[in-house]
Automatic annotation (TrEMBL):
Keywords linked to the UniProt accession: Exonuclease, Hydrolase, Nuclease
Assigned EC number: 3.1.-.-
Name of the featured protein: 3'-5' exonuclease
Lineage top rank: taxon: Bacteria
Keyword Nuclease: yes
Pfam families found in the cross-reference section: DNA_pol_A_exo1
PANTHER family the record matches: 3'-5' EXONUCLEASE DOMAIN-CONTAINING PROTEIN, EXONUCLEASE MUT-7 HOMOLOG
Alphabetized GO MF terms: exonuclease activity
3'-5' exonuclease domain span: 27-198
Length: 213
């Protein structure tokens, strides 16, 4: 395991084959309630969803974020990118607050706070960042390193795209691919850890409790 850890420096990860993201036909940008209704059954019947959110960055001292501006949910086949407005939030609230639906992602520490400000209580969210102690990582690791570790692939994470304006319409193709990959790859990482029986005990217990409820 220590050898695998040693190989995960930035330069080594960048030499790996690129991450196989969903193709653009399977990435859907959602802007209104009519679009939400089309995918309602699929999302509400999903036991586990990849999850992430993006916010327009703040640059001034004391500036308060109005995010999230984009919410991503992914199944094994598709990623849905929701522009945040009153209608999409109304649709997403029962999914994000559903204790019987697991939402998996990375770096979700601040999400509960920003979603609470939008009137949404996140339930059954599993942050995978601390799920790699089996591999020798005592601290949190990010999605990029997790993908490299489990799949031997390089998930490009452009800082320029990551700090771009997520409130813009339409999103750029780079933003769409970036946002979709964050949710989709998180779901793949979770499934791989579960298949290899490498999920930490506290995460396994959470999953078992939710799925048996």
């Amino acid at each position: 395991m220590s050898e695998a850890v040693a190989l995960l420096d930035k330069a080594s990860i960048q030499q790996l084959p690129p991450f196989e993201n969903l193709n653009h036909h399977n990435i859907v940008v959602i802007e209104n309630f009519e679009q939400c209704k089309i995918i309602e059954e699929e999302l509400k019947n999903a036991a586990i969803l990849g999850f992430d959110s993006e916010s327009k960055p703040t640059f001034k001292v004391g500036e308060i974020s109005t995010g999230p501006h984009l919410i991503q949910l992914a199944t094994a086949q598709k990623a849905y990118l929701f522009h945040v407005n009153s209608s999409t939030l109304k649709f997403l609230q029962p999914i994000l607050s559903n204790q019987k639906q697991i939402k998996v992602g990375f770096g979700l520490k601040n999400d509960k706070h920003i979603f609470h400000k939008k009137g949404i209580e996140l339930e059954s969210c599993v942050d995978l960042a601390k799920g790699f102690s089996h591999f020798g990582f005592k601290q949190q690791i990010g999605l990029q390193k997790a993908v490299a570790l489990l799949f031997g692939q390089y998930l490009a994470k452009s800082k320029k795209v990551g700090t771009s304006n997520w409130a813009r319409k339409p999103l750029t193709s780079q933003q769409i691919n970036y946002a979709a990959a964050d949710a989709y790859a998180a779901l793949l990482v979770f499934e791989e850890l579960r298949n290899q029986k490498l999920l930490p005990a506290h995460i396994s217990q959470t999953i078992q409790t939710v799925l048996q409820a």
